[in-house]
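Notes, Module 5: Reading structure tokens.

Key idea: the token line is not a picture. It is a compressed description, and you learn to read it the same way you learned to read a sequence, by spotting repeated patterns. We will look at two proteins. The first is printed below with its tokens.
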Amino acid sequence: MSSRSPDEFRLGVRPYDRGAGSGDEPEDPHELLHRARRLTAHGHPWAGSAWERAATALRRAGGVLTPGDHADALDATALDCRGAARPAAGPLFFRAADLHEQAGQRGKALVSRARALVAGPGPGATACARLAELCERATALHRAGRAGVAETATVRLLHGRVRADLLDTAPDPTAEAAALREELARLIAFAAPHRADPAVLRVLADTRALLGRITAPDDPAAAAAQLRTALDDQRAGGRLWPATEHRLLLSAVLRATGAHEEAAALLRAALVPEVTDTPLRAADRARLCLALARTVAGADEHGRTARDGTEMTEGLPAETAAEAWEETAADVLDETAEEDGERLSLLAEAVRHTDGPAQDVRVGALARLLLGVAHAERGRYGTALALLEQALPGFADDGDTAGRVRARAWLAECLLHLGEPGRAAREYALAAAEARSWDDPRHGAALSRRAMHTLGPAGTHGPVPQTPGTGGTVYADAKTETEAPAEGGAPGGGARGPWPGLRELPEPFGPPGRYQVDVYGEVGGAGPQAATAPGTRVQGCE
């Protein structure tokens, strides 16, 4: 039986930094088909591209894919759907499930249906209930010998991921998290006796990573142990390409426990894979760069505190103590400059890797915001302004209020330092209007006051032009905080940098609950102001 045209899974998206179609790749369609099957069996991220080439070559030779091969091709292609292509994943998985059924592969069909449910827009209680039904069907098929251990375990794992996403909406999240940990422990016990099968070992790795995620808020040490084992299982299962989510989660746990150097080493290793031909998605590389920049900044702050020289100079004569202080201060300055340069370089690299057809809007917006803020803090207001203007539409598309407020506030500060107080006041007013929707009223009030004071340098003491959503007109008073400076200068001709209140604003894209994950891999660190931001699911389709 032949399947429908292979063109239906050709999305025209290239999510990887380099393709698998170079070098000594075979030209014969049957060899390409064999290669695609092999990569699929190994769970390789290049399987989707391999199927596309095999299907094209087969069609040119007058052949077609069988339903089973076509289903595997659709599965692999759907797993490639990240960033802008993500909405296509669900329909591809559902079509793959139908083809698996035609081919008599009922276990694979259940996996595809489960992935389709997880890939949907924010799976909720309904999807969770349907996944529970699929788990029962998978268990029954396994008992009848019609579904493998890896297939059954995968369906159960996907159900666990959706349950994890819904933990913070449960009446008792802590109790529900404990129940989910018990279920994941049973899943590990079910799969562990079959770990000789690489496919089972890969499911075990992902199960331990999920267990680490929901353990992190309550027991970071236990979470770190689970995540280390997950990485070991991933390697033992033949997945030599980076497990980005696992590494991000582990590095975040290490940061939370103060192990900044170990976290940085882990992230650097992920950015430079041991095997040179392993793929790393551009968006994943960007997230790793953002997490490493965050780790470097945290290590710098931690290091300065640890090296304040107090213990070094206790009991020393005054002259000797002064010399020790000077040496320590010089060392700290040198290390700070080096770490600062690395952080800027990492943020710039993150921005570069968020362009392209498969770009991740939220990661791209965050990368530009962070790089823009970094330049603004160093007085490079013109460079910062361009980056912040590019970031703002991304936050608008993603619906993250915290991101829009922070971007507008920093944009206003740059405009003020560049001698445009009128535009600056408008941006501050827009930021204040959005911040008023938060539970904490202090940010909105502070931004409103900043909008009022900003107009002072222009000699304007009338109303700031009312903008949609401001909830009223903001009036400037006669008091001034700043005077229009030149590029790189400070208001009033002094040496002051940006307004300190900017650093108090909530961060964008934080996890909206205790058990949710943000773009850095951190679990449960967000305040209520960021509650509108969707969580980042841990490899929800895989």
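Here is the second protein, with the sequence above and the tokens below, as before.
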Amino acid sequence: MTYRNLSACVADLERHKHLVRIDAEVDANLEIAAIQRRAYRAGAPAMLFTRVRGCRFPMLANLFGTMERTKFIFRDTLRAVEGIFRLKLDPFDAFRHPLRYTGVPRALWSMLPKSVSDGPVLRHRCAISDLPRLVSWPMDGGGYVTLPQVYTESPDAPGPMQSNIGMYRVQLDGPDYEKDREVGLHYQIHRGIGYHHAQALRRGEPLKVNVFVGGPPSMTLSAVMPLPEGIAEILFAGALAGFRIPMVRRPGGLPILAEADFCISGAIAPYQKPEGPFGDHLGYYSLAHDFPVLRVDAVHHRPDAIWPFTTVGRPPQEDTMFGDFIHQLTADLVPQVFAGVREIHAVDAAGVHPLLLAIGSERYVPYAGERQPQELITCGMALLGTTQTSLSKYVLIMAHEDAPSMSTHDFPGFFTHMLERTDFTRDLHFITRTTIDTLDYTGISLNQGSKLVWAAAGPRKRQLADTLPGDLPLDARTDDDHMAGAGGGAFGDPRLFGRGVVVLRGPKHTARRDEHDPAMHALAARLAHARGLDGLPLFVVVDDPAFTAANWENFLWVVFTRSDPATDMYGAGEFTHCKHWGCTGPLLIDARLKSFHAPALETDPDVERRVDALAAPGGPLHGYL
């Protein structure tokens, strides 16, 4: 079964009990987002809301909420797409196992988009203010499109082969936007639309943009697919859809997805306006910043238009399924894309880009008496040098030869392995004043911060402790701390999190951006003179030790979304030698919320109570949430 449009997908999902209709009236302002988040956590069916307050269009939630449903949607094309990827690894496998690849020729033909003269999306027009105004979190700056397919073509080489489809934030309204004429277009660093925008600016032309919503489900997946530069997402969309994607060609304009539910057409204005705040997938708000503005020429929609949406926030959320699905499709390609790398895992619990775990090979000096990180450093730099892995902040990489059965999904095993083998005088490699994810506020400015390649190879260097000593010297205050801006209060409440890892409370952070905290230096100095810490190589300072140490999901989220490697890492016995930083004692990470960080996401209690009522016995959502 292949779906040429979203309505066909909805009908088929409903027939197979993968979708339910909700006829009770719901509000797109906060309420429907709270429902969607609960539906995802509960593993609920997709939900079609037929009565949205103040809006004539139905809204579709949780379409990709489970891996089972995602694979069901693409059940007739997934094997062929996997075959294409397998052939890229081993072209001769088709001769050895021809029956594996019976669908590949059709998939390859389907990759080419099809030009058509008309399509259902052009039947009707409306205004931006007629669209669903989805507000996901209380501090959001306006209504947003959360599953957009932002389509652009290269001004230098127009046509689908040099096109880009990205899932970039689209803010539909706000105090700074001209109603029905302007929408915010937030695209982050290292995104394909940026190359097209740069070309348009160089040519002195406005960049034309079409924002599709809905249509064939493969188009939504293509918008988040991390394809190599130069490979158009629409080609992948066709292969996954099982048919050539029909695009309406128009003189003087960009092509329009014929089967889209909605299309917002326009061009990027020669000015910027504030976009945001927006509750994002790191679990915090991205604050208001100047971003491009799309001047809207027209909004088209099909007669039976459905508005699909999701909400993002602290992982896991529905977009976690995107990452898991993509990982399953592409995991075998990793060694071909990154020479020497066997496995990677962009950790969803840590917000994806803040933490990348990797397993590589260490083959550079096989004759050496003791293996140490060498090829691993090359692998780490390669991961930071291309594709979406270049946005990673912490890259922790170990040698396959030391533990052939290790998986990057085994967090306790992986971190134990790293901490047992790391030489902290040698194995930490910082890159400073570089580009980081736009949504990450731990750096020294927007889009700028540091990265770390932390490599470990060779025999165990220490036995990790599974108990805490009774005399940890944690009160690191000095008489000068308050004057130095270190904040009040002592360090305390130490807890052992896993073997060798201490989580403790720190005083409230008051230091300025792009500077170290004297209190952390003082703590490191005290630990340098302490005894019995050989088995405790990592100390993490947080605001709430009980929350952080409760489970791995909390630990990974707090530690890696609230710290910048260069600014927030300290060490007992730290030194800088020929511009290389290291330490002889425990490593310290300051994972407190900083005075300049964006606030964490919190729900609206009144909205949550309304959703409680909808989910209570007798309510329209009972049994689903």
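Summary for the second protein:
- DSSP finds 18 helices and 30 strands in the chain.
- The first strand starts at residue 19 and ends at 22.
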